Amino acid sequence: MRLSLPLGLLCLSLIPLVPLSAEAQQGPGGPAPVTVMSAHAHDIVLTARLPGRIKASTEAEVRPQVSGILSERLFDEGADVAKDAPLYQIEDEPYRAAVAAARAAVAQAKANRDLAALEEKRAIELFGSNAGSAQNRDSAVATREAADAALQAAEAQLMSATIELDRTTIRAPIGGVIGLTQATTGALVAAQQTTALATIRVLDPIHVDVTQSATDMMHFTTTPEGRAMRATGEAHLVLADGSIFPHSGRLEAAEPRVEPTTGMVTLRMTFPNPDHVLLPGMYVEVDLPQAKAPGAFALPQNVVMRERNGDAYVWLVEEGKVAKRPIEIGRASGNDWIVTSGLNEGDQVITSGFQKTGPGAPVTVVPDTPAPAAGAAPQAEGQ
């Protein structure tokens, strides 16, 4: 896991100090030149940089629900399609014939039902006038009820045939961006086939599934402040080329289980993607707020030295001379260490040039010239 700071919350500003005279900097035997940064405490938002992959927020495969020959493709590949928009047309002559046959069956069933109803009425009247038997009456009633059932069956068959005919026009199950077609006109397709004809994806908003170790997540979810920070803090997306995606996102949900083989938890982030810059499958990293460190100092990792026993220290400029200062560091935040003790407000921390000096050596402070943004090295993985 890597922790990084939002650009607007840098905890240390590089303060160029006025150099000594040119003679003092360049004269033989003069003090060695060093660059420094002035330590200033700020409230720091600790963020975890988590690796992940982009996924469509909604995805649906287009499959035929009836069998037949594809006669037409009705969409442009890669275009936006609306829900229920027609995508493919299957030759529908057999299905139109089935509908016509079903309508005829309904008409015949209605005629039979009407005849049975007349015979039932006549049998009841004859029985009431003692001119007919109860058996004839009961038989007529049963015949009429059977005719009613036959009519209902015929109407259901007509409904089924109509549905099948409607399904010869394959429609979009969702609205979104449709991909490349996997079938051409003239191809035979089958109902419930395993191969999708095309896939539709919703790309705005987009999902990013990232992973974080359960151990690291516990550090930030055991306090109400940490839980609130994760739930409400803005997440930022780092693209594969190191650039920052302009839209911020949020934590949507967490898988309620730990993968036993890796000890990782999957977190789902949601980002707006109005220009469809982010595509499913892209590798990205997400800076997710974890906690706050009030009144903390941050130092670039390359200026923090280590003793043989692992204790951390830095070189300072005190009264024009090099001084060694033990410090205690906490978590990493991007390329910085969060300093928990040992630094004071305004301390002049040497950032370069200390290799040619030693404790007590006089030095000349020279202005620090930040490197151009385009030449900045990308953040190393795994920090």
Task: Outline the structure in words.
24% of the residues lie in helices and 37% in strands. It contains 5 helices and 21 strands. Strands 1, 4, 6, 9, 11, 12, 13, 14, 15, 16, 17, 18 and 19 form a 13-stranded antiparallel beta sheet that branches. Strands 2, 3, 20 and 21 form a 4-stranded mixed beta sheet that branches. The chain is elongated. β16 and β17 form a beta hairpin. It folds into 3 domains: 2-57 and 203-369, Beta Barrel (Elongation Factor Tu (Ef-tu), domain 3); 64-91 and 169-195, OB fold (Dihydrolipoamide Acetyltransferase, E2P); 92-167, Orthogonal Bundle (Helix Hairpins), CATH 1.10.287. α2 (93-128) runs antiparallel to α3. The N and C termini lie close together (6 Å). With 383 residues, the chain is of the alpha+beta class. Residues 357-383 have a biased composition (Low complexity). Residues 101-171 form a coiled coil.
